[in-house]
Amino acid sequence: LFVCLFVYQILAQLWPYVGKYVEDILRNSVEPVVKDSHEMLKSFQFSTIMLGDMPPRVGGIQVYTEHVHRNEIILDMEIMYAGDCDIQIRMKRFLAGIQDLQIHGTLRVVMKPLVKFSPLIGGITVFFLNRPEIDFNLTNLADVFDFPGLSSLLKGIVADQVANFMVLPNRYPMPLIPDLEVTKLKYPMPVGVLRIHLKEAKELMRADMGFMKKGKSDPYCTLQVGAQSFKSKTIENTLEPRWNEYYEAVVDQFEGQTMQVNMFDEDPGSKDDPLGNAAVSISEVVKMGFSDVWLPLEDATTGQVHLRMSWLSLSSQMEALEKYIERWRDRSRGVEHSNVMEAMYSRTCHLTASALPHLLRGKVDEVVRRTSKQTNKQTNKQTNL
Asked: Cys-Cys crosslink for 173: which of 156, 184, 185, 244, Cβ 3.0 to 4.6 Å?
């Protein structure tokens, strides 16, 4: 309780500066995207942005003691905001307000490196592990312009822009000592890659009720790992969709991070109907190395989704592939041949740790140069597989 009160006092001191940062995001990032999203919104702009005097509340704090380096402190804070903000938007000569703004999410604070002189902490990095829940009410404007989807559109754009700035792998770094490289705080080495095989779903809810016949759905699935999003193709007129699609998500922090799974029924011309959701603890997949599960869908009367997930750790040595292949050979007894080959393929088709940061920053030519150089030096049966 004392720690929560202490953090709340810090947030109260920082709140005026946070307000300026939020205003910059809304004006320079959210506003242009809204204008480009629809012809009717070309004149959209924020006329007033004030977060008020009430800072977010801290619901709880967790300090990590495992899987933590000696030169860092990692803690998670449950952030809840329902303040007295005053945000006004303008379209042509009409004004409208954003009321009842609420934000809820888990904010991670990483203090590193620890130093032997004042202030003892070299820098602080803050970010959301997963997308925070953002909700608000939009008054007047939607009715005036007969634009009923404006509120949902704004919520989606705001959530995407927050993810671009503050949801993993994006971070907000704050160096506290001179000569500390900000890039080391903002772009640390990822811990691995989560390979996701979206196989199928079954027993989904009936969303489209036909005339004189049993209803079906047009399901598709979305997966979210931090700010990274993946969407499957839509399978029409079925309750037993089979996708058989693969995705790979770069993971920067697996402790406390989850993969969100959402199922929808596609309705062209109207809002898609939710068919349920599920969450996967990435740390559990890391512990097992490979997971093949049927997940029951929550917020739904019925439905399950079938996922296969592999954890790919990063290595600077190509010889590490031999250990992975040997491990999957041991696991191959009693398992389908196709499953084993799929796992072996996923283990061999990974970038070395030295090349991955360049890929994240868009330097594809550097990735090709580094990967080709190492492969030419260490060509063997495993790397050719």
From this structure: 185
